[in-house]
Specification:
The chain is an alpha/beta fold. 47% of the residues lie in helices and 12% in strands. An 8-stranded mixed beta sheet has the order 10-9-8-17-14-11-13-12, sandwiched between helices. A 7-stranded parallel beta sheet has the order 3-4-2-5-6-1-7, sandwiched between helices. The longest helix has 24 residues, at 610-633. It is globular.
């Protein structure tokens, strides 16, 4: 179908012109199928097709069509990084007057300002929080596009997405679900009352293969039978041997490795063999990547990655800082970096395709203490990264660690597992039941079950009766924790319950904090950080600190507990004791951060990367900020103020004396300390500081100094 033919489906010429300017001349088979099945007529759809098959454009067309009709459209993603990527992509629609917004955090904000946008990109969690806060513009939503729809089967984010969709099913909102890998797409389409759009088409053909250890060759499965590639290099493992051969033959290669340490180690190993291939690296582009790496806050990160990138190699994982990850991604896209060793999180994150993708199908299972095979769904996600549209005639994926050829072929020919509801976990039920009660949508168990009856759980298991018993148990806990009042037919949230819901905390997090704080009249900073690290909201996403390092801190933790500086360890429960000790290690990391210890020093002591520190910082800052509001609004004003100041310290990584200075945009932990060392300790002192003195300080350029003075003027200071 030619792009111009979209006018026959009611799409205005101004939209068609933008599509033509972007290089779209005709719709591909998947996009055409979506149009023919009522995409622009408001029909809900579940779109399942391989990676890079043009699913995003389907969502865009639905969003733009509804926006031009006066509705608001939302594009939901699981990760902040994806939200930023899509937000930048969608800016193209500002050419026709549409306003594009983004919202990925600040769960307490009602978000009324978002009503001025036509298209909003948001994370699942942020939209769930908006459904609780109920800004006036919610009634104007005409379409919700859910990227990575298969995430409904995820243990952590799945219940959030499932409850969002259940609520949307009560309205006339068009739902567009997008996914590359779903084993039961028809079932999800029926649940959502949607058309199923699925076409097995890719812009770049995918050829999948398995490394055969016995014959030292890759066996590729093609339409015409098997094709073989002998591996002539003999490095220490197949992944390195195949990666080197791939680069030598002119291909960029993305190697998925099952843990961070190995990703870094293998990157260094490959770099030792890349000297003869340096001619492949564009020196001008290399300079740009090295310049971007200077933005990393970690000197060891800058040094290590810069050295690797000079040899056309890099690693990528969640422990890296945002600046380093972006530099690696840009370097790979520009062709400077020929091989990237990445953990599997990249497969579900940013779009980073390669001519050849090497996949590990083994993961360490701590419960069995041995390597286990991953799900077919996970393999398909990683393999789908193979092939760069407009650059490669084919994309190749290679399983490099199959125990046998038979095992590898099972993944290639296998069907992704069915997506199943994870809503029935205790954590999910208490969070979402309290939200329904607190927002007045459920005054009884039966009313709550009306919403739960719209869920995938109800669709798959045919009944919510088994949920009813679980919900009654949750109700007992919410009563006991002071979250709700009333009898069985008239549940109401208490102030504590309402605040817990709108701050997006797990009710158990609030309860754990309330219980711990009751035994401490004047908690210190480390004590508060330890309690925060004990909460379920922190524990579910805390960075990994090795058991060896945690045990090394045991004596110090017990000594601090005996002094009352951290909570006492639990008695007679080995699991809870281990959690208490792990929480101390986490609290120690956060304490170092707010006392302005450099990221490299924290990493050296605790074995974490800058990305880990920032992730922990974000989680801890959100929890402390939420607990600060709850404390203040339930009468604990002094504690609330202490928690609020701690949340700001966590956000910026500063000591108490820098809190006032970091309130200015552009002044972070490093510049604030520079000012303090120069004798400037407050905004009042900053306002009377001569321009020449500020300009003489490291990190203070003319543009920043002018911005600082402008902010001070707006705050009422006379300069």
């Amino acid at each position: 179908m030619k792009i111009e033919e979209l006018s026959n489906y009611g799409l205005p010429r101004i939209v068609i012109d933008v599509l033509l300017e972007r290089g779209f001349k005709e719709l591909n088979p998947l996009q055409e199928e979506a149009i023919r099945k009522g995409l622009l007529d408001g029909r809900s759809q579940v779109v399942v097709a391989p990676t890079a098959s043009g699913k995003t454009l389907i969502g865009e067309l639905a969003l733009v069509r509804k926006a031009l009709d006066g509705y608001i459209g939302l594009y939901l993603v699981p990760l902040k990084a994806l939200a930023g990527e899509k937000y930048e992509e969608f800016q193209v629609w500002s050419r026709i007057g549409l306003k594009i917004g983004i919202s990925t955090g600040d769960y307490e904000s009602p978000g009324e300002h978002l009503g001025r946008y036509d298209l909003i990109v948001a994370t699942y969690e942020r939209f769930d929080s908006l459904l609780r806060l109920r800004p006036a513009w919610l009634s104007r939503i005409g379409v919700v596009v859910v990227d990575e729809l298969h995430m409904v089967g995820d243990y952590e984010r799945g219940p959030i997405l499932e409850m969002i969709l259940a609520r949307l099913l009560d309205s006339d909102t068009q739902i567009i679900g997008l996914s590359a890998t779903i084993g039961n797409p028809g079932e999800l389409a029926k649940w959502l009352h949607a058309e199923l759009v699925t076409v097995n088409w890719r812009p770049v053909k995918l050829v999948e293969g398995v490394f055969d250890r016995r014959r030292n060759r890759i066996v590729f499965v093609t339409d015409n039978g098997e094709r073989y590639e002998r591996i002539i290099h003999r490095l220490e493992n197949p992944a390195l041997s195949i990666a080197l051969q791939s680069v030598a033959r002119g291909s960029q290669v993305l190697v998925f490795v099952n843990n961070r340490r190995r990703a870094e180690e293998w990157a260094w190993r490959l770099s030792e063999h890349m000297n003869l291939l340096n001619y492949l690296i564009d020196k001008d582009k290399l300079g740009i990547v090295l310049e971007e790496l200077k933005e990393s806050p970690s000197s060891s990160e800058r040094t290590n990655l810069s050295e690797l990138v000079k040899h056309g190699v890099a690693y990528h994982h969640a422990g890296l800082s945002t600046a380093a990850r972006r530099a690696v991604e840009k370097g790979f896209r520009s062709g400077v970096i020929r091989a990237v060793f990445a953990t599997p999180t990249l497969a579900a994150g940013v779009n980073l395709p390669a001519r050849r993708v090497l996949v590990s199908i083994k993961r360490y299972n701590p419960s069995t203490r041995r390597m286990m095979g991953i799900r077919i769904f996970e393999y398909k996600q990683m393999a789908g990264r193979a092939g760069r549209p407009q650059y490669d005639p084919i994309g190749e994926s290679v399983i490099y660690d199959a125990s046998s050829l038979t095992e590898g072929l099972r993944y290639i020919h296998g069907k992704p597992e069915s997506v199943e509801s994870k809503l029935s976990t205790e954590r999910s039920l208490r969070i979402h039941l309290l939200a329904l009660i607190a927002t007045g949508q459920a005054r009884s168990i039966d009313e709550a079950l009306k919403t739960f009856s719209k869920t995938l759980f109800r669709y798959q298991y045919g009944t919510v009766s088994q949920l009813k018993y679980r919900l009654l148990e949750v109700i007992e806990d919410l009563y006991k924790w002071g979250m709700i009042t009333g009898d069985k037919g008239d549940y109401k949230a208490t102030r504590l319950g309402y605040l817990t819901t709108i701050t997006y905390l797990d009710p158990l997090t609030t309860h754990v904090f309330q219980e711990k704080i009751s035994s401490k009249s004047d908690p210190g900073t480390l004590w508060l950080l330890h309690v925060v690290a004990l909460t379920p909201d922190y524990r579910r996403s805390r960075p990994y600190i090795s058991y060896r390092i945690v045990k090394r801190l045991e004596e110090e933790a017990l000594d601090l507990a005996s002094q009352g500086k951290i909570p006492d360890p639990p008695e007679l429960d080995e699991y809870e004791y281990d959690q208490w000790l792990q929480a101390f290690a986490q609290a120690r990391m956060l304490s170092m951060w707010i006392n302005e210890v450099r990221e490299d020093e924290i990493g050296k002591e605790l074995g974490v990367g800058p990305g880990d520190i920032y992730s922990a910082r974000d989680t801890a800052a959100w929890i402390t900020s939420s607990l600060a509001r709850i404390s203040k609004e339930t009468g604990k004003l002094v504690l609330g103020e202490k928690l609020y100041r701690l949340s700001i310290r966590l956000e910026y990584g500063v000591k108490e004396d820098a809190l006032e200075l970091v309130s200015l945009e552009g002044i972070g932990r490093v510049r604030a300390r520079t000012l303090i060392r120069s004798g400037i300790r407050s905004l009042k002192e900053l306002a009377v500081t001569p321009r020449e003195k500020l300009l003489s300080l490291p990190g203070f350029g003319p543009r920043l100094v002018e911005n600082i003075y402008e902010q001070l003027r707006r705050k009422g200071f006379k300069l």
